[in-house]
């Protein structure tokens, strides 16, 4: 960012104005932020290649426990464990005569074999915590989508370049408009000074009773008619300066002046672009369309790769605890973990994938037609700019040649008027011709510079390259 002291300088060159605009213009700042946003989006897409690790914790309070029913030819503990297991448990029961030994399944009455009773399963509190991780191993759709993210960054960079090209063109045209307004004010100022000088001379002659009242009235009317044009031209300078400040992105109340005159750029009017230079390889609009075409080609592949299988690896490690109280120090935490592969094979999606492929192909065809039309319009714009430059050169040569003759005619008419050989009407006509010629010279230079700026933007010529 340039120093504020540069903005507050009394005189600015065209290069200074462009440099300030490159650092202060809002559209340029937004374009740079868009590049940064695309970079972060690209990093977010590439993050899908790395393992995704998540931690989790859960608490579950049982309201009603699940009940288990056993229909195994008998009821009670003996029916669940079986007679063989009960034989091994008989010595333990013998050591504790207070505990009744359960009957065997053979001793259980048949009518009790299908007991309606059940066993409650689980505990009231369940705690779970752990880590899960997953990572894609084979995923063609994901790999292709990463190309689109990289192309998004490239597109953002090209859009930022387009904003700079447009901004430079706007600064140039605004700067040239200020110079044109200043030239017009200088011309009308000289007209006013001549009219004022003539009025003073006629007033002196009138006071000496050498001219009539009509001559004095015509001289005063001539002077009065110039004043509104002078004020308007002065106001046009202020309007042009406001436009320049707005494009530069600075405060409209800052005091600034521009250096140079339009005639300083007249020396470069003889330069025209060669035919081999009029190519659209660097045009920003066509570059953006080319990048978008690449994105659509990648989008078609993404939809096609959606039909391919994908492989991923998954890992999980959890700790579980179940209890009927909240005595955490006495909890028995048991681990549970696994690692595995997951293969996903798309089979049928109701025609959604094929429809997406057709949509992407239609968009690619539309973009191709749009690119051809844009290229056609740009070629027309280039030809118009070339013709405008040639016309401006011819107008400048003609007006510049006529300017010398108009100056000479005005000087002769003015001298003749002073000695009484010409009328005020003749002097006004000569002065009007001189004013129109001066303005034609300035206007032809401005037209050439404006057409050249538009041509440079269409050709994608960067300010740094110039």
Mean pLDDT: 83
Radius of gyration: 45 Å
Number of helices: 10
SSE string? HEHHEEHHEEHHEHEEHH
Strand content of the residues, in percent? 5-15%
Task: Summarize the topology.
Layout: H1 4-7, E1 11-12, H2 14-24, H3 26-46, E2 52-61, E3 66-68, H4 76-81, H5 83-95, E4 119-121, E5 125-138, H6 140-207, H7 213-248, E6 257-258, H8 284-305, E7 310-323, E8 334-344, H9 352-418, H10 424-459
Parallel strand pairs: 1-6
Antiparallel strand pairs: 2-5, 3-4, 5-7, 7-8
Helix pairs in contact: 2-6, 3-6, 6-7, 6-8, 6-10, 8-9, 9-10
Q: What are the main properties of this structure?
A:
about 15% strand; disordered N terminus; about 475 residues; two-stranded parallel ribbon; single chain
Overall description:
The chain has 466 residues and is of the alpha+beta class. It has ten helices and eight strands. The chain has helices at 4-7, 14-24, 26-46, 76-81, 83-95, 140-207, 213-248, 284-305, 352-418, 424-459, and strands at 11-12, 52-61, 66-68, 119-121, 125-138, 257-258, 310-323, 334-344. The strands form three sheets. The chain has a four-stranded antiparallel β-sheet, with no helix packed on it. It has a two-stranded parallel ribbon with strand order 1-6. It has a two-stranded antiparallel ribbon with strand order 3-4. α9 (352-418) runs antiparallel to α10. The two termini are 21 Å apart.
């Amino acid at each position: 960012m340039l120093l504020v002291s540069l903005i507050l300088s009394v005189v600015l060159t065209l290069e200074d104005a462009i440099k300030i605009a490159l650092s202060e213009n809002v559209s340029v700042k937004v374009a740079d932020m868009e590049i940064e946003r695309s970079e972060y989006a690209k990093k977010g897409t590439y993050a899908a290649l790395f393992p995704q690790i998540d931690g989790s914790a859960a608490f579950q309070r049982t309201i009603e426990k699940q009940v288990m029913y056993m229909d195994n030819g008998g009821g009670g503990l003996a029916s669940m464990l079986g007679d063989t297991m009960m034989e091994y448990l008989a010595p333990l029961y013998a050591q504790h005569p207070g505990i009744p030994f359960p009957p065997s399944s053979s001793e259980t009455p048949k009518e009790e074999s299908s007991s309606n009773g059940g066993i409650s399963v689980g505990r009231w509190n369940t705690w779970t915590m752990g880590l899960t991780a997953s990572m894609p191993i084979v995923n063609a759709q994901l790999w292709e989508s990463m190309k689109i993210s990289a192309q998004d960054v490239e597109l953002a960079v090209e859009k930022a370049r387009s904003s700079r090209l447009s901004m430079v063109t706007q600064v140039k045209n605004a700067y040239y408009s200020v110079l044109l307004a200043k030239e017009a004010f200088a011309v009308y100022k000289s007209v006013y000074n001549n009219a004022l000088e003539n009025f003073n001379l006629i007033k002196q002659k009138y006071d000496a009773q050498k001219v009539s009242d009509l001559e004095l009235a015509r001289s005063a009317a001539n002077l009065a008619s110039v004043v509104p044009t002078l004020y308007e031209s002065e106001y046009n300078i202020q309007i042009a300066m406001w436009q320049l400040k707005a494009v530069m992105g600075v405060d409209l109340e800052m005091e600034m002046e521009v250096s140079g005159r339009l005639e300083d750029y007249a020396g470069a009017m003889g330069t025209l672009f060669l035919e081999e230079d009029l190519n659209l390889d660097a045009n920003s609009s066509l570059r953006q369309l080319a990048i978008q075409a690449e994105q659509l080609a990648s989008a078609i592949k993404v939809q096609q790769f959606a039909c391919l299988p994908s492989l991923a690896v998954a890992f999980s490690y959890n700790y579980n605890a179940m209890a009927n109280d909240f005595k955490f120090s006495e909890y028995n935490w048991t681990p549970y973990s696994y690692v595995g592969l997951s293969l996903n094979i798309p089979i049928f999606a109701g025609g959604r994938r094929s429809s997406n492929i057709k949509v992407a192909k239609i968009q690619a065809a539309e973009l191709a037609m749009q690119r051809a039309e844009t290229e056609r319009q740009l070629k027309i714009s280039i030809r118009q700019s070339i013709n405008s430059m040639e016309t401006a050169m011819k107008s400048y040569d003609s007006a510049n040649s006529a300017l010398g003759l108009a100056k000479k005619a005005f000087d002769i008419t003015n001298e003749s008027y002073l000695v009484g050989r010409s009328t005020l009407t003749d002097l006004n006509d000569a002065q009007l011709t001189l004013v129109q010629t001066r303005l034609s010279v300035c206007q032809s230079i401005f037209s050439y510079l404006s057409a050249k700026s538009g041509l440079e933007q269409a050709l994608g010529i960067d300010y740094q390259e110039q």
